[in-house]
């Protein structure tokens, strides 16, 4: 099992990471939920960047009038 915190490899039955000593007995559902939230966060960042670019383009057009 790979530690979700430090990415060190541990035995599949490990409850605590041998490298960073953090609890790695995280249910798979929580890991899947975290991954889903990270994907959504990344998508929102892309959408925010696009919105900012559109606003800047509108502001430039207004200034050029």
Describe the structure.
The protein is mainly α and 65 residues long. The chain is rod-shaped. The mean pLDDT is 92.
Biggest sheet overview: none
Please state the average pLDDT score.
Answer: 92
Shape: rod-shaped
Determine the structural class based on helices, strands and strand pairing.
mainly alpha
- DSSP summary: helix tally: 1
Oligomer: single chain
Percent of residues in helices:
55-70%
Defining traits:
Zinc ribbon domain-containing protein; coiled coil; single chain; mainly alpha; 65 residues
Structure, briefly:
It comes from Bradyrhizobium rifense. The protein contains 1 helix and no strands.
Topology (SSEs and partners):
Blueprint: H1 28-63
């Amino acid at each position: 099992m790979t530690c979700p915190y430090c990415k060190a490899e541990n035995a599949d039955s490990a409850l605590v990471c041998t490298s960073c000593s953090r609890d790695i007995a995280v249910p798979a559902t929580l890991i899947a939920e975290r991954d889903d939230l990270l994907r959504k966060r990344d998508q929102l960042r892309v959408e925010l960047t696009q919105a900012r670019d559109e606003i800047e383009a509108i502001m430039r057009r207004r200034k050029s009038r």
